[in-house]
Amino acid sequence: MKKLVLLMSVLASAYCSTSFADELADIKARGSLTCGVLGDLVPLGFQDPKTRSLVGFDVDVCAAVAKYLGVKLELKTVSVDARIPSLVTGRVDLMTASLAYTPVRAKQVDFSSAYISVPVSVLVKKDSGITSFANLAGKKISANRGSTSEVYARQKLKSSEIMSFDDGPSSYLALQQDKVQGMAMVKSAAVGFKNRSNGTTEFLSEPIFWEHDCIGVRKGEPALLAAVNTALDQLDSSGGMQTIWDRWYGPSTEYKLEREKKIVHASDF
């Protein structure tokens, strides 16, 4: 009897492992891909005020991956600190919510190649007299809770007090209200706040670090991870990724950011 129970346990474990490791097949079988995105960070993921639909850079990348897989796209909004839990628990199949690679996160989920590589910068008020990291000693810096900006700001700006906020608008409002003297955020997101400050803010020239935004995949899904990387490579080689970049960050937008780095493979992080 004990041998039978043990055998059934082993078979059940093997079945679960096989099922869990075949998420790509499951996605294709049901004909849909559920992607996690932010819902409040322009231009990465936000609600279009006219159509009320979710739009943004990360949304377009999700759509491109779904198209490559031949399935329809379903979107779910997540908060910054719920990104990893939402992926690990299966609430979403993939996570593109400005999810940057870190060694700590890589122990929890797998990362695709980076489709965005941009610096994390510190935004300050022009009249603050702050021109370098040295001037931030003893000052308060806002950052999104659970973000890589928060993690690396704590590591790089050890003499500053890092204050966590729920989202980008809250972090920026703290700067505007002088509750903090700087805001640490990935430049591709922070530039929107800078441009809307009517010339009252500026970036410090030194970046905290270069952030690699990737698509998060649950551990144990090599087929899905490989398919995502192939989709990103094809999107880049076809010019599709540059088109998405130009749509949200290019010369005709308020950001006017140059795409300094192309697709960066995980082995080069």
From TrEMBL:
Name under which the protein is recorded:
L-cystine-binding protein FliY
Which keywords accompany this UniProt record? Signal, Transport
Q: Which organism is it from?
A: Paraburkholderia nemoris
* Record-stated family: Belongs to the bacterial solute-binding protein 3 family.
Keyword Signal present in the record's keywords: the answer is yes
Pfam families for the chain: SBP_bac_3 (PF00497)
Q: Where is the Solute-binding protein family 3/N-terminal domain?
A: 32-252
The region annotated as signal peptide is 1-21
- Which SUPFAM superfamilies does its entry note? Periplasmic binding protein-like II
Stored InterPro entries:
Bact_solute-bind_prot3, SBP_3_CS, Solute-binding_3/MltF_N
User: Superkingdom of this entry's organism?
Assistant: Bacteria
Lineage of producing organism: Bacteria, Pseudomonadati, Pseudomonadota, Betaproteobacteria, Burkholderiales
